[in-house]
Design brief:
Helix 1 packs antiparallel against helix 4, helix 1 packs parallel to helix 5 and helix 3 packs across helix 4. The chain folds into two domains: about 200 residues, Fumarate Reductase Cytochrome B subunit (Up-down Bundle), CATH 1.20.950; about 140 residues, Oxidoreductase, molybdopterin-binding domain (Sulfite Oxidase, Chain A, domain 2), CATH 3.90.420. The strands form two sheets. A five-stranded mixed sheet has the order 2-1-10-5-6. Strands 3, 4, 7, 8 and 9 form a five-stranded antiparallel sheet that branches. It is α+β, with helices and mostly antiparallel strands and about 375 residues long. It contains ten helices and ten strands. Pfam families: Oxidored_molyb (PF00174). It comes from Tsukamurella soli.
Length: about 375
């Protein structure tokens, strides 16, 4: 629609509005990046990395923030693109080399925008599909998501560095002094408010699944709490093809270390049992607290003579990509790290890891190995 006589088109595609949206989007990206690094390092720890056992809900918080901010970034990114997209096709692409500094600055700006748009859209779309556990691709999501996160942040830093003078001027109200015609469409503040409101709604609609008080509002969350023993299930026994082996009366848990011990299920139940209340928090953002009963991991480590400071490797009947996890020494010694035999007062459901599974504080659900058949001392 064109503006009539004496009327102006809405002045919404302004540097000031783009700067405010970019700031909100940048904050969301920064939180996603930091919390995503933590999640990746917990699952694939570098030698220097340390992750505490307290508070027990720490991973529940960081991964909940990761998913909530990632989902919130989607409407912010789309609105930001809607505001600035004419500039993406502006000519000249770089400018005249007679002014090399200006041309270099413009070239870096255009290149960073191209990389940022592609990388960010990849991160947001694949992250959203990961929440739904739908993988219409052949690459390994975790590796691709981690690598592209560095590309995204690098592009953000280059873009902000190039545009910093414009951003600073916009916040000083020097780069744009126009005000939108109140009769010609929504104003800048209305558009910014709508974008922030959409981001907040998206965060609650999906990310609310990790926070008890908001769980009922998480109407777009794929797993809000339903499942056997009042706990969601990501990977069922049928999907893992472990039903027959896990339910076999001949089951034995093999413990290997300085000594080797084999325990039947009845022998595991005869060991001192402890009950703890811990959350199960998955990388997709959902989490639920539950009551777990079983044998302390520290007691099993002592049973095979594991030295102080040793980590333990848990091996599942499931031979899938997450059938093995390593529990760091700090978590091995934690009093609430259990080889769980019961969940919420009853024997583990087969889909929750019967006959035994790992549960430890402040760990991703993907590392809380189900259907454990062997525990090895890592030397």
């Amino acid at each position: 629609m064109t503006a009539g006589p004496g009327r102006r088109a809405p002045a919404l595609r302004t540097t000031r509005l783009a700067a405010h949206l970019g700031t909100a989007l940048g904050i969301a990206i920064a939180i996603c990046f930091v919390t995503g690094l933590l999640s990746h390092w917990i699952q694939h720890p570098p030698g220097w990395f340390y992750w505490p056992t307290r508070p027990a809900w720490l991973y529940q918080l960081t991964q909940g923030l990761h998913v909530a901010c990632g989902v919130a970034a989607i409407p912010l990114a789309l609105l930001k693109l809607a505001i600035v997209y004419p500039k993406l096709f502006a000519r000249p692409v770089i400018g005249s080399w007679r002014a090399p500094v200006a041309a270099l600055r413009r070239g870096l700006e255009r290149a960073s925008i191209a990389v940022l748009v592609v990388a960010l859209l990849f991160q947001l779309s694949t992250g959203l599909l990961n929440i739904a556990q739908w993988y219409p691709w052949r690459f390994f999501f975790t590796t691709a998501h981690y690598a592209t996160a560095w590309v995204t942040v690098g592009a953000v830093l280059v873009h902000v560095g190039v545009k910093l003078p414009d951003i600073a001027a916009a916040y000083r109200r020097e780069s744009d002094t126009r005000s939108a015609d109140p009769d010609s469409g929504p104003g800048r503040r209305a558009v910014l408010g709508a974008g922030l409101a959409a981001a907040a709604l998206a965060a609650v609609a999906v990310g609310g699944q990790s926070a008890g008080p908001l769980r009922r509002l998480a109407f777009l969350a794929p797993r809000s709490g339903a499942g056997p023993q009042d706990l969601p299930v990501n990977r069922t026994a049928a999907a893992a093809r472990v039903g027959t082996a896990a339910a076999s009366p001949d089951f034995r848990l093999h413990l290997t270390g300085p000594r080797t011990v084999d325990l039947s299920l009845s022998q595991l139940r005869a060991l001192p049992q402890h009950t703890v209340r811990l959350p199960i928090a998955c990388v997709e953002g959902w989490s639920r607290w539950a009551t777990w009963t079983g044998v302390r991991v520290a007691d099993l480590a002592s049973l095979v003579g594991a030295p102080d400071g040793a980590a333990l490797r848990f091996v599942s009947i499931d031979v899938g990509p997450y059938g093995v996890s390593t529990l760091p020494a700090t978590h091995v010694r934690a009093a609430d790290s259990l080889l769980a035999l019961q969940l919420n007062g009853a024997d583990l459901d087969l889909d929750h890891g019967f006959p035994c599974r790992l549960i430890a504080p402040s760990r991703p659900g993907v590392t809380q190995t189900k259907w454990v058949r062997r525990i090895e001392v890592v030397t």
